[in-house]
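F.,

This is the one I mentioned.
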């Protein structure tokens, strides 16, 4: 069942947003973007930096803490610990086994790392630049290596975080493709129920087509706002008048 009144309100709000607004949200508001910037600045190897971001993304589920705190733990650890590319998976597993924020389903997550690490170890910075220009290809290859569906939450989330990491490394912005879907986590699922009880991915795909904002950029607008510790005052200072439309998203 759909709540058409609320859906129309949502679309009206999103009529004030575009890809550039989402980009500003990502770079000025999303704490996950900040921690990646901090990590990149503390590491000497951009290639390893991107590989670690992808590895962390594919095990970022069933956390023992918030997503924001988990990525902060990740950034702090790798800013202090070196990694050998040929032992990439082994080094990451050591971090995961001793992490505080990601202790559930460890065996399953370690197997995921072991599946994808050989693929990543064979890539260089030029390969990542190519993938940044064709993120759907990265989605496809991660899906194959992990034997997961392309709309799997962790796969599409990995592409989103890869986009962040690549933007930081290459100092260039390429929007996410329209065909890569929103990561369906508990925060998004709960919010979607305000509008419909149908599949959240299907619903946000429709919103994306109507607003012409790629689903991963829609995620960047709504996911931080729904967080427990979202600072609306800081957001107002950084985003200006569009701030009031973000506030309306929480009032629906």
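My design for it:
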């Amino acid at each position: 069942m759909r709540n058409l009144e609320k859906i129309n309100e949502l679309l009206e709000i999103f009529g004030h947003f575009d890809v550039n607004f989402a980009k500003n949200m990502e770079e000025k508001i999303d704490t996950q973007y900040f921690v990646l910037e901090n990590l990149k600045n503390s590491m000497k190897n951009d290639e390893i930096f991107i590989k670690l971001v992808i590895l962390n993304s594919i095990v970022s589920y069933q956390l023992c803490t918030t997503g924001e705190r988990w990525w902060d733990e990740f950034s702090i650890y790798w800013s202090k610990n070196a990694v050998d590319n040929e032992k990439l998976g082994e080094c990451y597993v050591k971090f995961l086994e001793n992490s505080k924020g990601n202790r559930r389903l460890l065996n399953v997550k370690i197997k995921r790392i072991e599946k994808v690490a050989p693929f990543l170890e064979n890539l260089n910075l030029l390969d990542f630049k190519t993938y940044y220009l064709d993120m759907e290809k990265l989605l496809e290859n991660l899906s194959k290596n992990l034997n997961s569906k392309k709309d799997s939450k962790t796969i599409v989330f990995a592409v989103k975080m890869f986009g962040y990491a690549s933007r930081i490394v290459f100092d260039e912005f390429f929007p996410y493709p329209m065909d890569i879907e929103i990561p369906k986590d508990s925060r998004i699922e709960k919010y979607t129920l305000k509008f419909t009880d149908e599949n959240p991915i299907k619903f946000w795909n429709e919103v994306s087509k109507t607003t012409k904002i790629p689903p991963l950029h829609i995620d960047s607008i709504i996911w931080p706002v729904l967080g427990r510790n979202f600072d609306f005052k800081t957001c107002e200072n950084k985003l200006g008048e569009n701030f009031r439309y973000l506030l309306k998203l929480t009032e629906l």
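The chain has a mean pLDDT of 94.

Talk soon.
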